[in-house]
Amino acid sequence: MNEFIGYDLLSTDITPETAIPAELTYGKENVTYCMKDGTQKKGVLNKKSEQDIPCDVSLLKISMENSFFEQIPDIRLVDMPGFDSGIEIHNRAINDYLPKSLAYIIAVAYDEGTVRASILNFLTELQLNNMPVYVVITKADKCDEEKGLSQTVSHIKQLIEQKMHIVDLKIV
After folding, report:
1. CA angle 59, 45, 33 (to 5 degrees)
2. What confidence category does residue 159 fall into, taking pLDDT thresholds of 50, 70 and 90?
3. Dihedral sign, CA of 147, 149, 125, 91?
4. What's the pTM?
5. 68 in Cβ contact with 4 (< 8 Å)
6. What is the C-alpha separation between 7 and 93, in angstroms, rounded?
7. How far apart are CA 133 and CA 130, in angstroms?
8. Closest to 135 measured CA to CA, from 96, 95, 98, 163
9. Which of 11, 83, 166, 167 is exposed most, by the fewest CB atoms within 10 A?
10. Cα gap 70→64, rounded to integer Å
């Protein structure tokens, strides 16, 4: 997500603090902290470093005048905690956000070569909820040969299509 927005705005660490979903949209640059007690607080968007997030925040809403988001002004992209962190509040945040979602983009690293079992299990849950899924292969630029990349993409596509009982999965 940081690559999309052109800033190191969102934490990439695997810590309990990264369990807060961050909604990113086009608009006047600001941050809204949705507090656990239901109130909201406005903040200033800090483009120079990761946001300083108070401990009692349940959702972070970031709007920005950004060329990427300008192309999709009605779309909200959400940065979620990663899978397999071993941190229970990450899993809870992912499950709690599911009813608010319209589709999921699953990132799979090329250098892993496959889809982890935890992600396949989550895909089953998404399928039960008729949730559209798209897949992004990350780190594809690290691939030395085109054949290796196409084999990896085919393998990942086959795994997910079988797990979700779908055809023609979109992968980029």
Report:
1. 25
2. very high
3. positive
4. 0.74
5. yes
6. 24
7. 9
8. 163
9. 167
10. 9
Exposed e or buried b per residue across 104-136, where buried means at least 16 C-beta atoms within 10 angstroms of its C-beta: bebebebeeeebeeebeebbeebeeeeeebebe
Phi, psi of 97 (to 5 degrees): -85, -20
Determine the pLDDT at residue 158. 93
CA atoms of 96 and 58, how far apart (whole Å): 11
Summarize pLDDT for 22-41 with one digit per residue, the tens: 899 999 888 898 998 999 99
Tokens representing 143 are: 């691939």
Which tokens go with 66? 């950004």
| 140: pLDDT strictly greater than 70 | yes
Q: Which residues, 6 or more positions from 112, have their beta carbon under 8 angstroms from its beta carbon?
A: none
Identify which has the larger pLDDT, 73 or 6: 73
In angstroms, rounded to a whole number, what is the distance separating the alpha carbons of residues 69 and 62?
A: 11
What is the length of the chain?
A: 172
